[in-house]
Design the sequence.
């Protein structure tokens, strides 16, 4: 369980005290505030705060465009237009702040998205908890034989058992030794100095959990979701992206629907690919050999059309 | 008057309908929401939205530092510590969104602060209003004779009158011609095509007003305020910075007080300057010649100690 | 002519003195260095410096991927793969620095691209030159009647003459008055104080030329070029983008070719649009009414397929 | 030894072939190019490329200021002025690209500097090497008893031996099991699938080495150096910052000297602290009690004056 009774009662207390505000309010998002949505075995995402809603996107765009937009019949149409034409600034006018608990190897991928604000729990200052990500059996996958950075089939039987046993025993041994190095009591019960926390942490493996506050605007969040909720993303970060996406859908339903249509469900065709589709529309049967595409491109192109 | 009766009634309507929220609320900021604080002759700043408060800064820092901070006795102490030690990330956890009406030459300085989100009223899409910044007589200053990028004394008499007359008449003539170029009726009342808005706007001078939505986090806002509320900033942007600062003070009073002490009221001494102060503390009388500083540095150094 | 004989001789001098370096060198770019490529009537772009070449993109990507990429047969294939899969970081490893002279209204669009470094000529510090953009007759376009932010036909006859006359006379009068306000001699030849430069500049129209140093990485430059070399961009910024694009093509030919295929020549289809193409590929005749798309979307969709 | 003979010969080859360029060349930096400067037990920094020199900073600033700066007598004076007045944009006109090999826990601190470009070696794609940071005995420090995020005395005797033994044996065991999980041969020599690389890497501790290409402008690099070459930075990142600083000093000697005087050797005094120094300059003996400062602030304040 990711949260202690104390933490759960803090969340309940935070949710018990609505206060009046004059700001834009998203009812859909209020329902999520502070709740911990579980992810993986010990992780979670929690929405701590948000700014704006669908109407705020339109409002910002209309300052940008002034009175001229009155002919756009409705907010949905304008939001779809903005998304289609890559107008990013109106989406930047919404902001979200999350509290996330996640394994270090996931945090290392996540932090590569630079246009965001982060405060991470410090292993220099504090002692980390004994919590490690151990994959569920159905996610214990073999190396893909076709994709150098992907997974293949699920491991079975002895091999699966061996892997799980190694991950668990190494994590626990590493943590035991982390504690022993930090301790001001030696194995014989005598006093010792205790290694600096900033050094001892180097013994901990990448599946230990860390946590952070992460704040990002909606445009950059959509970029994160497009890459990390994608089928090619590593499963362990994808589940975080999916949990966030579910909240975003309730927060800004119109913007999220446009994002789903144009980004998550959309595809970018190259000039070469457009030319091939045009030939196909005339009835021509095009093959990789006659397409002018490399094998990799052709495989991806075929993937679009099923 | 910067706002029309329609606009004022829109603001009144927005302020009339508080709604419950579970988010952090700053009472001080709620009082400012949507109100237009006048700046210069036709400009204003309006707070449209905000995220977080003083407690949110502490909360983010404590995730960053974990349970270890319990010994910091109070939020004020921690916030001062963070400011003193240039810990910027906790301040990034607060965000503000403003609607600003400002002359174009001020907008051109402002936009150089890149870590912010902006939606500007578009002169390609819409027709700009006939509103120009004309300095009040007490701000009609001569070129400084000592500072290449500053102002000297206020212009007097004939010269002042001449300058005001030129600014007003040129602005109005430029706008008349902007309208004439856009018009689909020629001077004889016959039909004409009308120049594209994206071209006609090039005739308008830099004191015409534009407007935008501007969203920024508290850390970057403090950086903006430090540079633009400073005595060396151009008066016309400084008054915007001061109007924003007054809102920030009500929003996050602890953070703002720390900012005033360490940034606005603080000073950075070079290694050379520290060495000089040490000599002065032993009773030595140091002059520019014996300081090792250039004349410019020495003048600024003397300015600190009055 | 954009450059004085003095400036031309400075450029010749800079080009006369090659020096040895161990860094990556792009022969194609060396040929452009320092030369001013004319844009509009008084503007230019000049490449001042660059970092990296096509091989540097591959080199960075291969650190990223380690020895595993040895199976990618050639640099071109890898660069195309990176572009197709939106891997932006290897392209960020190349950097370019430009000196640009451009009208203020173009600079105001340009600066909205925030991920770049800029040093602009300061009108607080210095006196601006009497140089204004006056459109060539063939670019003096009417407002589009179908696109709120676009141009229609070219103005003809009297109207064109009237517009050019207004633009020229207003620009010159504004500049005359700018000089008169700055002057320390009044119209009678007596001494006056002279208005501060930071104030006097507000009288100058948006077609006056400014200049700046602009430095950006290749990924962000491609993003700029995609938006600003696009047919929907305003002509006056598009010609700058095209002049830059011509240099980039000589600098990193493989990356530029991939950019042309996937970005400039490519198109993003929504989930809805993909579904329609699939129906079309089965021979179905799809109309706007049966497409599920709005009229605007359908018009753009049809535009792809000619 | 951080580099293999193959890698050393690649470096020698890269250094053997100077080519002519018209760009700004820094002789001091050319001497560093490609050489691996060792850091810690297996790490290094290597300068891969650079853009600009001291003169490029001045050149950019002079566009910014135009002809007006002719009265600044020399480049050094202007560079010092820019640094003193926090003019960051001219320093952004220089850029550096480094190849760095570093432990993961150092990489995790480093990446928090977001305004930079990074390509990291991918543990999804490739197999990491068996190289771990093991502190030298003189850097095996105890937790500080006064500073929650610092180090105290060096560990001695048995305790030191125990810590080193744990770090070494845990690292090697983790790596053995990483290999075993990846292996397509089970412990009995029979075929097994082999765990996906993206999963197996989670077993590796934070002292394993990774590597990346890191590109940053000089302004942001100075910010990095100020924080990470500081006495309060963790030793293991400080040595990287110092190795980089040594290269920067040879690259842009004037800018580096200004940085040392105003940033590394400088100190920021609060309004409160300035008031205290003024009292001290009149001969008053000020104590913490009469200073108005907290104990922490007073301790830091006393630290400045020795």
Sequence:
């Amino acid at each position: 369980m990711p949260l202690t009774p104390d933490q759960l009662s803090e969340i309940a207390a935070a949710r018990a005290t609505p206060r009046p505000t004059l700001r834009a309010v998203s009812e859909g998002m209020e329902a999520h505030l502070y709740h911990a949505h579980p992810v993986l075995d010990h992780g979670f995402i929690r929405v701590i705060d948000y700014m704006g809603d669908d109407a705020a996107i339109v409002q910002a765009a209309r300052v940008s465009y002034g009175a001229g937009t009155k002919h756009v019949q409705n907010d949905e149409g304008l939001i779809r237009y903005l998304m289609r034409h890559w107008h990013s600034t109106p989406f930047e006018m919404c902001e979200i702040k999350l509290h996330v608990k996640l394994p270090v190897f996931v945090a290392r991928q996540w932090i590569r998205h630079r246009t965001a604000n982060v405060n991470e729990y410090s292993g220099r200052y504090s002692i980390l908890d004994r919590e490690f990500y151990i994959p569920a059996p159905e996610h214990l996958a073999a190396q893909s034989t076709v994709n150098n950075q992907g997974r293949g089939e699920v491991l079975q039987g002895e091999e699966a058992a061996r892997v799980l046993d190694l991950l668990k025993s190494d994590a626990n041994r590493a943590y035991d030794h982390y504690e022993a190095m930090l301790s001001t009591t030696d194995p014989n019960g005598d006093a010792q100095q205790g290694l600096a926390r900033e050094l001892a942490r180097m013994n901990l493996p990448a599946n230990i959990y860390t946590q952070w506050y992460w704040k990002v605007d909606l445009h950059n969040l959509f970029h994160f979701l497009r890459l990390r909720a994608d089928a090619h993303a590593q499963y362990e970060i994808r589940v975080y992206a999916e949990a966030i996406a579910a909240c975003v859908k309730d927060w800004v339903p119109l913007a999220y629907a446009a994002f789903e249509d144009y980004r998550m469900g959309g595809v970018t065709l190259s000039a070469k690919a457009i030319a091939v589709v045009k030939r196909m529309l005339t009835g021509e049967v095009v093959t990789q050999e006659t397409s002018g595409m490399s094998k990799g491109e052709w495989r991806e192109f075929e993937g679009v059309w099923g």
Remarks:
- The first strand of chain D starts at residue 19 and ends at 21.
- Chain D has three domains: 1-133+207-266, 136-206, 268-306.
- Confidence is low (pLDDT under 50) at residues 64-72 of chain D.
